[in-house]
Amino acid sequence: MPRRQSAKTRRTVVIVCSVLCTGLVLMVIGFQGHVTGTEFAPSHFQSRDFSFYEIPGLQLQISPITRTGTTAGVATSIRLSGLIQTPKGPPTQWHVVSLSRGMTGTTPDDAHLLTEQLEMLHDGTSFWKTWNTDHPQHAAVLWPMVQRLAQRELYVLIPELLLIARSSAENDTPQTLRKKIDQTLIREYRSLIADMRQSDRPDLADAFDQELRADYPDLPRAEPTVIQREESTKQESATDNSVK
């Protein structure tokens, strides 16, 4: 009889421990294994939220991904107005806007630089939706350029283009806006190419150069911006050597 009670007690202890351990694991996964985020598709100017569960630390997904569309009204209007080129079918390229794991907080990614602007309000209404309505010809210049940069994941260049558009629409013609944007992109591309070469990343520098040549095939090979950067680098190097 005592042996039966002892065996029964052990089974009870094992069951209780198993239940407690399972509950603890589920609690940890529930708090620390919940992954949420937002994605953006530059081809369609669409956004969506996603969420799933993973094993914390291992980042091993253990549940299906749930997705919900969250496209801002201004992004929809840009697409429906024909201001960007939208391919047939659903988007195939999605870029992470932000990501949150457990209770670590939300980490923004590069695409956030565009989606944040699209959500900008002025007097309680969408700033860019109003701007597009007030300046349709300028909008036809701006948004294709923005889409092209987004598809190349060059979101870091987009805020300056939007700033140029905001500041020049009232006084400049669409042609002048296009010229200002072109000058800015050429300068920024040249800067990126120079930075990549100085960082010993020739493949990336060549990729940027190919994109620049595709956009501006008549652009001269020797640009003042590059020459100035190279001369500045040489002077800094010479100064450092003389100090040593």
UniProtKB/TrEMBL annotation:
Keywords: Membrane, Transmembrane, Transmembrane helix. It comes from the Bacteria. The chain crosses the membrane at residues 12-31. Residues 235-244 have a biased composition (Polar residues). This is Uncharacterized protein. The keyword Membrane applies. Residues 214-244 are annotated as: Disordered.
